Amino acid sequence: MSETIEAITTYLAPRRLDEALQAMADGEATVLCGGTDLAPQTESGARQYKARLLNINRVEGLGGIAADGGEIRIGATTTVAEIRRSAALAKIAPVLVEAAEHFASEQIRNAASLGGNLCNASPAGDMSPPLLVLGAAVELACWRDGAAHTRRVPLEQFFVGPGKTVKLAQELLTAVVFARPAPGFVARFRKSGPRPALEISTVSVALGARVADGRLGDVRVAMGSVAPTPLRARHVEAALEGRPLDAATVAAAVAAAAEDAKPIDDVRASAWYRSHLVKVFVEEVLDDVRGN
Amino acid sequence: MEKTANATPTAKQTLIGTRVKKPDAPDKATGKTRYINDMVLPQMLIGKVLFAGRPHAKIVRIDTSAAEQLPGVHAVLTGKDATGLKFGFVRDNVALKDKVRCEHDEIAAVAAESEDIARQAVALIEVEYEDLPGVFTPEDGAREDAPLIHDNFPGNKSLAFDFQHGDVAAAEAASDFVVDNVFRPHHVTHCCMGTSCAIADFDHNGKLTIWTQTQYPYNYKMDLAPALGLHPGDIRVIQPPIGGAFGSKLDVYPYEPIAALLARKTGRPVKVIYSREEEFKASPTRQPAIIHMRTGCTRDGTLTFRSADVLLDNGAYTSWGPTIPVIMMRTVSGHYRVPAVDFKAQAIYTNNPYAGSFRGYGNVQCTYATAQQMDMLADMVDMDPLAFHLKNSQKSGEITPQKSFLRECALVECLETAAQASDYSRKRKEYAAQQDAPGRYKKGIGLASSIHNAGGAKIHKSDGIGTILKMDDYARVTVITGASEIGQGIDAVITLIVSEELGVPLEHVTLVNNDSDIAPWDVGVHASRTTFIAGNGTRRAARKAKAQILAAAEKVLGEPAETLELRGGSVVRDQCGTPIIKLDRLLRQMHFQAEPELVMVTDYYEPKSEPEGAQHMSDHSAAYSHAVHIAEITVDTLTGEIKVDKVTVAQDVGRIINRMGLEGQVEGGLAIGLGYALSENMLLDHGLLKNASFRDYKLITAPEMPPLDLHFIESDCAEGPYGAKGISELPTIVIAPAIANALYNATGVRIFNPPMSPETVARAIHERRMQTAPGKATTPSEALAV
Ligand SMILES: Cc1cc2nc3c(=O)[nH]c(=O)nc-3n(C[C@H](O)[C@H](O)[C@H](O)COP(=O)(O)OP(=O)(O)OC[C@H]3O[C@@H](n4cnc5c(N)ncnc54)[C@H](O)[C@@H]3O)c2cc1C
């Protein structure tokens, strides 16, 4: 229907990873997974299809959740609906399941993939904050010199700007991995928008930490929609690390949030409201962990 | 005498008040319905419009040569092809413009073999603009040095309305309490699921057939004609199934004459259909307004006066929107017993998108103000708002200052029913006491009510409807009626009434109501009028048919017509219900006898209402009705999110005809009202729409629809069909102020500039706290405790 779709001359839907990587080795393929970002973006003219459209949904081994070992691995084509339904993740990393709960609508969750959510690199992407607090990394694969090569990039180094990542055009995101959280690890996620359902986050906050003797350790705090990329809130983390989880610490963390969150005014919310919400959510997730 | 196969008595049963499904529901639910958007005609071309994309500018140069040369392009039209073809309420609009007055102004149009070619051609049109300073609020537009938008409308003044009754100054002097606020209701749009679409085709005699979504096909011909230089008689309007209108199709909009101009130029049918983004930008809006309202009362809670000074944001052209003060002033003067009234409204041209009519028609904006001021005054005199409302309620037989005769008035019953069902008074006290207690989540309950015309509105010389009813040899009934079906359910109502009167199954009734060359005249779907007006028309026509049939039965059967009835597809003895002859058989006997007769009757029904008139003092509707909404909400005082937990509705419906249709209209109307109250907002930046998508324009979605507790009060309207009143607009009108009053009950803040979005509410609560205890809290929740 649109002129951009007519730019596609080749459509590929390989079953093997090698084939997929070879098909994009020249950096001249558009990768299609659920299409829930790609379709609206091309339709509106915000981006153009390349001549080769590469559907990765049928590639064997790119989907599924492996949660048995010390490292948890979620394949790139795993849908948000699968994450939401995963009994294993509900036990190991409930924060991811919770983020999936608040993600879009049933129809979108059935199509939307984890890999697509990260590669789209929206500052409002809902999978990023929980994965950041889980200390996740992404695996990027490409075809070079007649073989597949894979590198790992920590998620916090993956995003460079709205819609921009360190992933090269010839690289495919194959999986997201993170170490099985240690006993005592807790995590929380909060998101908000003007409407409870089918909503792009106005602001989101995730907290992950080890709790022992009323103190927080290995604290990770991540925020969405407060900067050009999802980010680690280093000031809030510093205010929490090793501290007793009392009212003074919470107040310090809330104050520190203003240092980390540098939101802007846009159609969805004013900078004032975003800053306000960040404080509310930082306090809320901490109170929740404190158990009140 | 005829013997019948089945002589079991047929019991007297009424369909009135039962649940009847819409005849088109199965087709719509299964995707079989062919909407206008799906229609393709042989040889059809696709028309596309070049929009200005800027709010105010001169067109210096326009070059269409590249577009014209593109293979597959059949015509490219610009402003010069529409010169002098002015249309619109005050003849200020034209299909293709020679000056830009708003973002969606149509600068050129292309007809091409395909959508893609048309789109490419539009992109090839070169336009050089010289931007002009614009005005984006009515206050700015009214300033003396404001840029002029239309040369022939000095001061950017569009329509103005005035109404005075009683001595407001004296009444104010006698008031113990006066509330004085400025309300700023915002821009929203209809968001029909089916985007705007028209298909136009001329025959070689110069007659235009236009397939379009209009909800007023007959006056539409009159309004469309000048945009094309045609005689209205040379226009045939066909209305295929559409995906919603809600008032947005109560005028001619430029895409319709554009389709026709392209069709005339190319000699082929041309279809113009909007994308969702175009729909957001080019659709009419609900009229934003600045309402300065004052209301007074005495110490014992008796209303003394109300004054409203209203500035309306007309937008760039005058559609029906600027006429909404006609309804606003009825609310200002007639919403409760107000002895002295002063109402002034002025619509001002701006470079914003222009307003049209929208379900609730001015009353949504006005009730947002009146119903909150009722709540504020009750607070000032320290009365339960329920008692305050009851004290000032009109009763049956009263006449409002504007001469609306409230023949059957059930306001008191609505108030008492809703208050009792929701335990309003107790909860309100309890929640108010909790307002400043610690705690993040606050509950609130709010009551609001309004009045609306419920028997049409005689804004034209006639508010009537024509009906033709015919029966065939198989006792199948065809009703040819002016009543348009735009999704509101008149098809079910008419079917039900025919079935009730003629005793035929619902499925044996067919409607023909979508072709202006066939169906007789009607004003259109607006003013909550169709069930009332078309219901009366249908009943009268059916009763004429019945009289004819029973007279024939008397001849055939030798039993007096008065003792006979039509029931269960037969002529029966009224007393015992025993069938005597099958209806189809009787009809055939009538048809094939020596002096043959066919059942085909006509009716023209004109309601007993008075034309609006220049002084706005008339009984302009054949009925009026009230509704009370009580909203129960939970407010997250930190994020500002409002969750609507429950809405109790008590509405005077006169008499229920189709209960399922009634419930559907109330639920749907509430959904529109909830969106208006909480989340919908057209974000305009210097006249440019920033959220032209469903991602950023927030309609209410299914999970946010609260549980509804519906109470229908049957006041039995003497003039209505079976006692029914019109019902469709009040559900949209009353909910927003009910939520606003609940928000006040929960938190002590009032929002004068809807929507009550989380951000707006959070900021208001935050500011209130900063005033009561500035700068003490270190965390958001600590701020709650101070
Ligand atoms: C109505 C609606 C609601 C939404 N709500 C939300 C929400 O609540 N929260 C939220 O975070 N998002 C939301 N989204 C955005 C979107 O659904 C998500 O970002 C989704 O996860 C994208 O996944 P996808 O599989 O559809 O990606 P696609 O659209 O297929 O791809 C997105 C981008 O990533 C690239 N890509 C995809 N997979 C790979 C891969 N494995 N390797 C390399 N590149 C790849 C594509 O080329 C494309 O550039 C919403 C979208 C819609 C339409």
Commentary on this structure:
The complex is a heterodimer of chains A (about 290) and B (about 775). Chain A is an alpha+beta fold and about 290 residues long. Chain A is about 35% helix and about 25% strand. Chain A has 3 domains: about 1-55, Uridine Diphospho-n-acetylenolpyruvylglucosamine Reductase, domain 2, CATH 3.30.43; about 65-180, Uridine Diphospho-n-acetylenolpyruvylglucosamine Reductase, domain 3 (2-Layer Sandwich); about 185-290, CO dehydrogenase flavoprotein, C-terminal domain (Enolase-like, domain 1, 2-Layer Sandwich). In chain A, the strands form 4 sheets. A 5-stranded antiparallel sheet of chain A has the order 4-5-10-6-7. Chain A has a 4-stranded antiparallel sheet with strand order 11-12-13-14. In chain A, strands 1-3-2 form a 3-stranded parallel sheet, with no helix packed on it. Chain A has 12 helices and 14 strands. Chain B has about 775 residues and is an alpha+beta fold. Chain B folds into 4 domains: about 25-35 and about 465-605, 2-Layer Sandwich (Aldehyde Oxidoreductase, domain 4), CATH 3.30.365.10; about 40-130 and about 200-275, Aldehyde oxidase/xanthine dehydrogenase, a/b hammerhead (Aldehyde Oxidoreductase, domain 3); about 135-190 and about 285-385, Aldehyde Oxidoreductase, domain 4, CATH 3.30.365; about 410-450 and about 620-785, Aldehyde Oxidoreductase, domain 4, CATH 3.30.365.10. In chain B, strands 3-5-1-12-9-10-11 form a 7-stranded mixed sheet, with helices on both faces. A 5-stranded mixed sheet of chain B has the order 7-15-14-13-8. Chain B has a 4-stranded mixed sheet with strand order 18-26-27-30, sandwiched between helices. The termini of chain B are far apart. Residues about 1-5 of chain B have low confidence and may be disordered. At the A-B interface, helix 11 and helix 12 of A face helix 3, helix 19 and helix 20 of B.
